Amino acid sequence: MQDVVNQVINTTFGWNWPSWAIALIGYLIVAVILFAIAPFQMLFLTLYERRAIARMQDRVGPNRVGPEGIFQPLADGVKIFTKEDIVPDAADHWVHFIAPCVVVAPTMFMFVVLPWGPGMVPVDLNIGLLFFFAISSVSAVGLLMAGWASSNKFALIGAMRAVAQMVSYEIPAVISLLALVLITGSLSIVDMISYQGGLFISSRDVASVPDWGLGWFIFTPVGFLAFVAFFIAALAEGERTPFDIPEADSEIVAGYMTEYSGMKFGLFYLAQYVLNFLLCAITSVIFFGGWQGPGVGWLYAQAITPVNPQGGWVFNVLAGVLGVVYFLSKTYFFFFVMVWIRGAFARLRIDQLMDFGWKFLIPLTLVNVISAAVWVALTKWGAADGLAFVEGWSPLVRWAVAFVVTLAMNLGAYLYLARIFAHSQAERERLDDEVLESLINVV
Amino acid sequence: MLKTEELQINIGPQHPSTHGVFRMLVTVDGETITDLKPVFGYLHRNHEQLAEMNTYQQNMPYTDRLDYFNAMANNHAYAIAVEKLVGIEVPERAEYIRVLMVELTRILNHAGALGFLINDMGAWQTQLAFGMREREKILDLFESASGARLMCNYFRFGGVARDLPADFMPRLKDLLLAMPGFVDEMERLLRENEILLQRSEGIGILPQELALAYSVTGPVLRGSGVAYDIRKAEPYSIYDRFDFDVPVGSVGDVYDRILVRIEEMRQSKRIIEQIIEQLPDAQGGYMNPKARQNVRPPVGDVYARVETPKGELGFYLVSDGSTKPYRYKVRAPSFINLTPLGDMCRGYKVADVVVILGSIDIVMGEVDR
Amino acid sequence: MDIPRGNIIVMDRRRGKLRVGQGLIQGLKVVWDHWAGSFHKNENFSQIHGTFTVEYPDERLPLPQTYRNMPVLLYDDESGHELCTGCYQCQRICPPQVIHITQAKDPVTGKMVPAATEFIIEYDACMSCGFCAEVCPFDSIKMDHVYELSTADRVSLTMRKAQLNRPISYYASIAPDLWAEVQAGAMKKLQGSIKRRPDVIGLAAVLTEKIKARRLELAAAAAAAPAAAAPAPAAPAAPAAKLTPEEKAAKLAAMKATNANKGVAAPPAKAPVELSPADAKAAKLAAIKAANAAKQAGAAAPPAEVPAELPPTDAKAAKLAAIKAANAAKKAAEQGNSE
Hints:
The structure holds three protein chains of three kinds. Chain A is an all-alpha fold. Helices cover 67% and strands 1% of the residues of chain A. Chain A folds into two domains: 1-82, no CATH class; 87-345, no CATH class. In chain A, strand 1 and strand 2 (201-202) form a beta hairpin. Chain A is globular and about 70 Å long. The N and C termini of chain A lie far apart (72 Å). By secondary structure, chain B is an alpha+beta fold. Chain B contains 15 helices and nine strands. Chain B has helices spanning 47-53, 59-64, 71-86, 92-121, 126-146, 168-190, 194-200, 208-213, 219-223, 230-233, 254-278, 333-338, 341-345, 350-360, 364-368, and strands at 7-11, 23-29, 32-39, 155-156, 159-160, 246-248, 300-308, 311-319, 325-331. Chain B is globular. The mean pLDDT of chain B is 84. Helix content of chain C is 46%, strand content 10%. In chain C, strand 3 and strand 4 form a beta hairpin. Chains in contact: A-B, A-C, B-C. At the B-C interface, helix 2, helix 5, helix 6, helix 7 and strand 6 of B face strand 1, helix 1, helix 2 and helix 3 of C. Strand 6 (246-248) of chain B pairs parallel with strand 1 of chain C.
């Protein structure tokens, strides 16, 4: 962000402002993004979810407040603000008070590395991806604080479940991204997006492919499997159905949120929806090219950038708008998928969730990392790296061979693991039955 | 090994998925249940004693309130009991209309029960909304026939309150057109869904012997593999005139109960189709007797039972020759089916409790009376 | 085990199949179909796709005629007479016992008359079973279709007679078929019970004031007439003055009855006369009899209570008027004879 600001102010306008002013302006913009966009996203997503799921259930959804119900979230917000804040007598008051803040703050931080459009990233950290996931796990602390401080059994169970689930599903999420980090060779989210230019095939893999902004990772077997694994893990991390176990309303009332009311409860909701938005956003950024799409690359090439100081500012605006439109439409599509899954499926049980995560998802993502290594070897290595036989092949052939090999590896791994998983499930059921028989001998 | 302590949790009486004011005192070791004690009585409204203060006719609308999902079926059981006691013959057409209503009740109950069950599993009301859609259609029919959607109060001693309205049959046929689509869709959504299988297969097993020992009835018993259906075992009304099958499960878990309920909806539809074919014409006002204050059965007692969607609903009436029953006892299927809950839940996880409870399909109005 | 007329189906659990997500995709498909189909409305019973929401305050489901919510009392539109005779049938059968009736008494003789001075239904405890409407022998209590009854306090749900009174035309508009079934019998019974109700007893509470005012008006007119016209005493003048309009009304009634019966399907033959022309004939006959009786009564007869009525507008009211005229005339004649 700062280099763009610097470019515009010092180079284009030639005002020669000091670097601290540039930094201040840059951070102000970032702060505005964090505190204006995030709650707005949450408000919008609640309405979006309710309307979409209502349609899936042959209903209409909230459509009374304002045209098509667009002010419904505001009405909800006013309601939740004016509610009485009830703290149980037995609660640990301070921890109970701090917990929602601890949950909300990290989700706000995660916006820092999120690129909205070409050149529109608040801070382009070179370890952006790592930062994103590192900071997201902080909120688990807040959840545990909330559950513990409430001194309520449901809350405690909910918090335990939340922490167990978040910790377990960080692993497949990060490993599935690791595969793409291998391919990209960078942890920077901006780099990952710029890698995804091209048309079906990334321009970085095969240079001759035209850059239409469609060389997304999802089109490769490695990326596809990583996407599936990551999206499932994201569902678990964002506590979405079928993994909304920590707040399973039919079992443990509302989990760690049971004893919260008023705006503290609202903050948990805010954190949850913002986190869901961010997970959808990061999915679209890493697997679907983020702001990449037909036209953005060309527009951005004409714009004012450090590389091209002579560009026209109108192209900055156009590229930005188009990029944001692409990015948000992808993000909202993934949120729709989340809603869709919520509309269709029941909830897993906590032990099944753990089974699925540890016995199925993690091995699958590990296999995917190996596939990614094969992919990198087949598309990038040469004789110098000890892979002489690919030297003579054209980049396209190398890409095709890599595609086929990794596809076979991933598909085989998936089917094999599914079979093993099914067997292990049957075995577990048998063991359960044995336990059961010992328990129900009461006739 | 870490020292662990058992935790006692009260699930209910105010809990989103206990289907009313019902309390389960659960002792858990981690997430595993070591003991479960069902506690009920929070909805006790003195139904039986109240009924002994009322005349026979006045009790009819109170039976609606027992199992408020299946008012028609409750009416049927009570009407049969009093008719047996007094010795009233029911005209043909009235019998057909009764069976029609009761079978519609069965469909709407199972649609709703499966919806609630899936809701308890954590699906966000989709299946419930689909079930409720079909239920609304049936309730519309009930409304046009009896005047009320839930508390129908449609049956009278010796007939039904009034004949079917003119637009009833076309609407019923429309409804039956939608029914296969609805049931198939429900099956597609439920039968092979991996998540649902995970949650329901091998969960809440009620072995046959245990089911019989607890005298469980209805889909729960049939799910455990006992082909016992009062409509077949002791045909009342005109059930001996219809072809229909009795679905049974093989394991006795939640999944079997789901399958049995789905299949029962199909069988109910079959019965309704046969009713539409065989329904005799109206024979005048005889089948629509008005409410009578002066039903005065001879001294004696009677037990009449029917197969409601939830199981065997029986009424035991003792008459002392006056217009009020001397003793009035309800054998409520929900109540009896709930008693093995502790044994069904022991050894499973906390999350399974609500699923098992949902699969029993209880209505607290009937449990506590 | 064998069961008659059917089989035992053991449900197929499809065990041993490799499940790699087909069921999940199937479930997603079902939900997608509903999402895609939800942009049109679920029109009729045979559809399973499309929104089925009824956006309540804007749209309402049509209520079937048989719909029952809360009981109300009916009164005759024209004469204002209630159909209720205070027979206590409804109070006796009411399962939650929320109906409370006070029987009317003749102010002069102190005897019971077939009407209710007060009729209370506690709507807050009513269970809408419809027994009261079913047992009512005079078809006076009927189930209303209004369901928006919410109030801020419980007391306002204790309905008194004035709040329960509804005109017959209202009930005939919400449940035409049901009213047509009972119409003839109900109206005949009403005529019977009107005979035994002195003065304003049994008049719909909403109309009592109106009718009283109208009576005063008529009395004033009657008082003014002799002062202006003849030296004859006021009492004998009154019947003479009334005779002509009464006759006219009866004839009008007869004509109207004929017309009305042409239009409306004849109610089931519970009425004393079977066919519509006969109806008209009966009305005419009654009118003529009334006229004759009144004539015979001569000057001595006191004025009858009859004429305090709004102009009759349809068949039953006309008949009623004719019969009333006849009764009044008869009474007058008897009194005249005894004198």
